[in-house]
Amino acid sequence: MTAFEELLVWRRARVLTGDVYKLVRGSGIAHDFAFRDQIQRAVLSITANIAEGAERGQPRKFAYFLRIAKASSGELRSHLILASDLGLCQGAAAKRLQDELAQIGRMLGALIQRLA
Fold it and tell me: Which range of residues forms the domain containing residue 24?
């Protein structure tokens, strides 16, 4: 098994986490506490589940946690779409993050397939 820090998908999700936090801080999302917390929990779940699964050291368990990370990426994409629709953030910034989330989701899917 590879250390999670060496996985490209984890590194990209790590960068994404910082970008999401910056978006939240600089937008109307910051004032909607429940929505903000849900967005932050979803983005943190992606890196956390990749790391936890990798540390389990068993391919089947790793794949399980990768599925959770993939689901969290979908949840976060949905939240960003809604935030843009509600005028809580700039559409272009949210779209860029949605695109990165879609790529991370595909990477997670490919890694899950390799483990299956």
Answer: 4-115
pTM listed for this prediction: 0.95
What's the CA gap between 76 and 20, in Å, rounded?
Answer: 10
Mean residue pLDDT of the chain comes to: 96
Q: For the segment 49-80, what is each residue's pLDDT rounded down to a tens digit?
A: 999 999 999 999 999 999 999 999 999 999 99
CA atoms within 13 A on the CB side of 47: 17
Residue 72: count of CB within 10 angstroms of its CB? 25
What is the CATH number for 89?
Answer: 1.20.1440.60
Q: pLDDT tens for residues 81-109?
A: 999 999 999 999 999 999 999 999 999 99
Structure tokens at 22: 């910056």
How many angstroms separate the CA atoms of 88 and 25, rounded? 11
| CB 51 within 8 Å of CB 72 | no
Number of domains in the chain: 1
**CA Rg value for the chain:** 14
**Number of neighbours of residue 38 by Cβ within 10 angstroms:** 15
